[in-house]
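ASSEMBLY PREDICTION REQUEST
Request ID: AP-0331
Submitted by: J.K., bench scientist
Number of chains: four
Total residues: 322
Priority: normal
Notes: Please return the full assembly, not individual chains.
Input sequences:
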Amino acid sequence: MDASNQTCAQAILETVPVIIQAIRVEMRLERMHDLSVPQFRTLAYIARHPGCSLSDVAEFIGLTLPSMSVLINGLVGQGLVLRQVSLIDRRRVTLTLTEAGSEVYQRARQGTIAWLQRLLEPLSEEERRTIVQAMELLKPIFSAEMAHQKSKQLVEESTGR
Amino acid sequence: MDASNQTCAQAILETVPVIIQAIRVEMRLERMHDLSVPQFRTLAYIARHPGCSLSDVAEFIGLTLPSMSVLINGLVGQGLVLRQVSLIDRRRVTLTLTEAGSEVYQRARQGTIAWLQRLLEPLSEEERRTIVQAMELLKPIFSAEMAHQKSKQLVEESTGR
DNA sequence: TCAAATAGTTAAGCATACTAATTATTATAG
DNA sequence: CTATAATAATTAGTATGCTTAACTATTTGA
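STATUS: Completed
Returned structure:
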């Protein structure tokens, strides 16, 4: 009996797109210091993994290498990210946030979190706990799935699509 | 004391983009009968609100009217949606799914839900319940916020940005 | 040492979503 | 009962984001 499993899938499919759309519009309305959602997520990743390579970020964010290369170009152009050739392996690139990048990221993050906090205010302590628990359950599942999807793509490529 | 409020906001901001990215990639990988996420959501809305107008869908999905008009063009071109001039108000348009549209939507929906169900399989009954509860809490909050964001946009326009 | 693999870039094209301007219809003020 | 304003949708033009394909530079390893 997994009616609950189907219910759960439906709930996610109906809710998550609504949330992400609201986040996107919010970020655009507030201009978010001229960051798009992928740019924001990229800064977040680099902040937590300083010295990471382009492929690392691309895999995490779910973009192709060329897309990520261009995205990073933009951030470097705005002086938010430092792109340096790795000393160990000169094919690689190491990415770090500049001072400005760190500030812009923190401000964007604080702003978005403040907006979310305002939305969540009407909820009870317990309801918020439920949400946190749900997020903690879902995050690893979908992170793992993204990695899985990536390997699937590679297989398709090697077998001539 | 609302430490839990901040934790909740953070959890959402970290998790939701991961989920939506995985959904997007999944839909693209499976080609989903050539539907994008917004196209899918549009079909879903029309399925539930047959005879709705362009503005209705646009507001729900969070797109501008022109964008929605173009999106609908695509769906009409694929023979999935019927666009008819309203008999009551000839400025308006009424949207309904064609037989084909209904089928494609159902197949895409089933496919995505099946994929989600597979991902959620390892969870316990109770964990799933937590997720369903969280989604039910979040959906109305963000739906309402989208409406609010829209009125905000209109105000900005009327006050010359 | 030379071929294969890896990391990243550049280029070209398509899709998506925006703003601004336009058309067609309906509502309303004088 | 016009004439003007408001509404619903479309068209045109632009910007951006992301993709695939082709290419460069470096490293691995047979």
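REVIEWER COMMENTS: Residues 157-161 of chain B have pLDDT under 50 and may be disordered.
SIGN-OFF: pending second reviewer
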